[in-house]
Amino acid sequence: MMEELTALDPMTLKVSELLKEVHLQTSSSFTKLVEDTVSAIRESINQIPEGLEVTAKEARGFVRDIGADKAEFKFKRPSYIEVCGSYSINSIARPDTGVDILLRLPKECFNEKDYLNHRYHAKRFLYLCVIKKFLKSSSSISKVEWSTFQNEARKPVLLVYPANNISEAPEFFVRVIPTAKSLFDVSRLDLRRNNIRALNQDGSTLPSPRYNTSILEDMSLEENNEFLRKTFAGWKELGEALILLKVWARQRSSVYVHDCLNGFLLAIILSYLATHEKINKTMRPLQMFRVTLDFIGNSKLWARGLYFHKNVTITKEDRMKNIESFPVFLCDAHSSTNLTYRISKSAFSELQEEAVITLQCLGKFGDGAFEDIFTTNVDFSSKYDHYIRLNLKGSKEVYSSGFCLDDECWRLYEKQVHDLLSQGLGDRTKSVRVIWRNSSSGCSLEKGFSTLDREPLIVGISMSTPEKAFRVVDIGPDAEDRDAVLKFRKFWGEKAELRRFQDGRIAESTVWETKDWTKHLILKRIVEHVLVRHLSLSETNITQIVDQLDFSLLHGGTDPVSFFPNLLGTFEILERRLRSIEDVPLKISHVQPLDPALRSTSVFPPEPHPLANEKGSGGKLSKLTSSCIQPLEVMIQLEGSGNWPKDDVTIQKTKSAFLLKIGESLQSNWGMRCDATEDEVVVLLSGYAFRLKILHERALALVNSGIATQRAKRVFGADKSLFFESQHASMIKGLLKPYPAYGPVVRLAKRWVASHLFSASLADETVELLVAYLFVKSLPFKTPCSRITGFLRFLRLLADYDWTFSPMVIDMKDDLSPSDKKEIEDNFRLSRKGYAGNMQNISPAMFLATSYDKASEAWTSSSPNSMELKRLIAYARSSANLLTKLICQDESDSLRWECLLRTPFNNYDAVVLLHGDKLPFPRHLLFPSLVNQGRVVARGNASKSFSPFFSSEDLRGRNLQKLKDKLMVDFDPLRLYVTDLKREFSTVKLWYDALGGDAIGLTWDRSGSKKRQRDEQEDEEKDPVSILKGVGEAGKGFVKSVHLVKVPKLT
């Protein structure tokens, strides 16, 4: 027990602080606000004349649309107005500050048979209409508006806002909820009875269980409220457990919604567990929270129905009737009312899954469990792999059979969409979630229901596996099964076709032919076909969030990842040739690809270049044949030998000699072009350039042991970097097969980083590790299977992670031992130790630990620094908010999506614009940059000495060898220009896009070393315009213009 308490302590402490923050305590000022507002409501109601004639004229539209045949009555004031809900049991959880009151509808206003044909619902609304009219005339009340009870349009409620408010509850309102205690004979509302005459099939009436329960719910509200009040009275821990459950549920928008959970149901479930002694007064709130989630997620009692009565025998027939009528049945403590009648089958499945995932989070105390459970937003946009919006505004198909029968038309349409998509997508999906928030506060319900379609219907789809989701062929029934074939063809229409398969089987099928790089669009095509065919929707009314950001990864209209199989095949040829070399003293024992393009994480993996071929061969030249080629890094290791020299310089020269010899061998044996330097050899093969480097492990051992001299460490630092690259490449390669979405998410993340000019702040490897963290540590989510969902989670991770006080541990295979984790924690604390008083300059600001790098040396030791990270976080938060808005709201404008990748230049002190046609790969440029702020201080003409494409004159000659000689390997004028600027202008901080941007952002850098401070003192004497002119002069022929956006404060 003591061990459990020790393990719980950190979590319990955080939970205690959370409760202090979110629990709205009933202070004297808040209590007075509640009492004054309720008193104002009572006074307004008391002003209503007794016997006032109320007719359907008060709300013709509502009465018409609800289908009520009688609605007249004489007004009588309510005899019962009582505060209820969270306020009555002291469990209001911020940001909610509303208080509920129950208002008993007088029996004199109703007839004996008003339970028929929506008469009750019509009179209920008309009664509230009268009250609303008088409330609006009260000086104590600022506003009165309509809302609905759990999104049920036929059961409106009033929201009353007081004229005066207090700071601790600025959004305070009182919700007026009518009750119907003892209005009708309960037996008349049996689940098997029909109480809506229009509800029939082929002349036979059908039961109306949902309609009946809707009335029974109002009849039992008072008793259930009193039951909750007694259960929670004097039990502080139970109230706190309820608050924790509310906070947890609110973070999960797929379950805290009209067809699933709400605060009342959470209180009821807690009361059920307390009544059945599953929780008791010896438990703490967190323990009750865990027990409740375990009950929700794992209890088998849900399948039989839940009953508060311990000693009352429920017949098997009644149990079956209840379960057949509703997916979930929880009978209240006083009647036969199902309190969970709104919960749908799909919603309950989602709820159980969320509960199980949360229990998994609870099982890992000390590893972000609290944040995963209570502070991470598991909303629709980040939870599901595929998001759909249906614009149904003005669609009469939705209510063609009437707005309200047994259930409301919006709920029926939700079910119809769910069933269609579930049938069409089959085992491609794990779950389909459909929600239509059709009613919102402030609507004019008096006019009817026709305006309750303003909000789009939203669908979230969780894929089962990428292999199933992106399957090209679906096999249907065998040709001999005529009934099944007719059903299949009726569903799929022209997409159904008869096929013979390799095993000889002849069956119906649907085929979704597509290129490999567009397989992620297969689900989109299926959804569109099904919805257009069966719901008569136009394609313009169906928005699917799938490919809106694909434009950022395309090159010439094609995703260059399509060349990956060709690239991989070329590398395998290179590997075989390297391993087969015989005329080198030591055989090559290992060849490893290090470049991101060789692990599917490069934004622009190279296309085969027609001039990068062996001697005497060449590809087809086009008008836009590039004059540049980027080499792909490859590491080689030689077999072991004791004859390596021990002197650092001699080791380096020996490596160079090996590289030269390897290059000569490749050239002489296979006619490959090779360019050699002291550190590397670049070889051209089948359209690609490969940069070969040798890893010398003895040098690495010397550096790690601390024996090597400072000079040796500088020389061998390259080996250590190469070792890190090797370990990293192996680790990332292991993610590609189990997580096919990993590569596309990384590519989007890298594109975003570069487009906002953070290329110098986040290394490619850093981005890959951040995204890897999302996949290997996916809780409280499931592993993402789509690129946009993964990208949104990446932005939120960057924005919300506690970088200052928490190391990020990327444990790919869950194989870090306790001693490894302790070493990482010790290294992290050591990195923060010297900055206790000033956390602005901590290093590394972003601590990323892996099995091969437990001290975060490899990728983030120098960047991002604290200032860069702060800027990154701000940009990530802004982009995450925009992306969430684009996903959830009815926004299909492509320009809005482009905003995610357009960086605002007003956040820089100066901007340098480059000639786009002088970039080595101009087609990588997303958008030509334009600066509208500040003033131009320098302009420059484009150089004629370089072109990213071979000229027509070069191509006309068709001399392949001359063209090959002109091919520039690893030429990047932006990189060279940035290097020059860093050397010449230490007072400016440079921000740029290494993927092909045509702009460089400059900020005035006031931080740094004594040397920089001396440089700054010298530069202070210069006018900022002079500095910027020097920046422009340094890039003569490459720089288009230099803009001073903000005048610097250099003194």
TrEMBL record:
It is found in: Nucleus, Nucleolus. One of its GO terms (cellular component) is small-subunit processome. Its main location: nucleus. It comes from Linum trigynum. The keyword ATP-binding does not apply. One of its GO terms (biological process) is tRNA export from nucleus. GO terms for molecular function: RNA binding. Residues 1006-1026 are annotated as: Disordered. This is Nucleolar protein 6. The keyword RNA-binding applies. Keywords: Nucleus, RNA-binding. Pfam families: Nrap, Nrap_D2, Nrap_D3, Nrap_D4, Nrap_D5, Nrap_D6. Residues 99-232, 239-376, 382-536, 559-734, 739-891, 906-1042 form the Nrap protein domain.
